[in-house]
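Example record

One chain of 280 residues, shown exactly as stored in the release files.
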Amino acid sequence: MIAARPDLLVIGGLTVDRFADGSSAPGGSVLHIARAAASRSLRVAVRTVAGPEPEARAGLRELRRLAVRVDATEAGATATFIHRDSGAGRRLWFERGGGRVHLADVGARESPRAILVAPIAGEVATEDLARLRPGSTRGAILQGFLRTVAGDSEVGQLPLSALAPGLAAALGGFDLLVASREDLAGEAAEPPAQLAALRHRVGDGPALVVTDGIGGVWTEREHLAVPRRVDGVASVGAGDIFAAFMLAGDWRRPASPAFVQRRARLAMRVVAEVLEGRRS
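Predicted structure tokens for this chain:
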């Protein structure tokens, strides 16, 4: 019996997240997305990398329960972040890095309807993006490409100019790019100008969206408010879930502004449902 084609392949590393109260847990885009997809009939496959830490092993076990396929590259350590609260909100420190996601056989092993590249800390090589054939809808979350990840220091944002020409060209061939307002704060203060800077860097190809937390999302044509505000719960992973549900499904090429806005509204509804579910 031939296994059904995955709706979405998510590529990115697991993380070990350490918190101010001394607790720690597995994290990373792949895990946040797999959790949201599991109860929503979205068949997710995962390509990831993880080390031997107990939190990483627990994350892999959970992924294997949730995803239809998990390919995990073994590494000597897992990318580890320290979460600290301050008066200005959550601040993130990078403790140590992990390995690279193995993608050499990605074309032979999966034939997903869509592929979402969601790196955390440099675990996806630029040259491997060429392996992601355009037969699948392709999208990327830019956060992991625009982070400073020097060992034992606070995470910062890189400017778009820091994207190597080869990386910018590869991303420019994708169907969808999602960045947060925080990711692009060094380019401009407001999302419309941030979108213009991003368009200038990656060219005319992909649809572009900037997320703005409780402020909703911005496309190049319109600001979209959140369908309902969900307070009192952790919003970690919300941007990852948004990008996954925006990309997965029957993507139109070229993606018209109305189509992009429709998909963004759908994805925001899913995020609101996920956040409300965290109350229980």
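Notes: The chain has seven helices and 16 strands.
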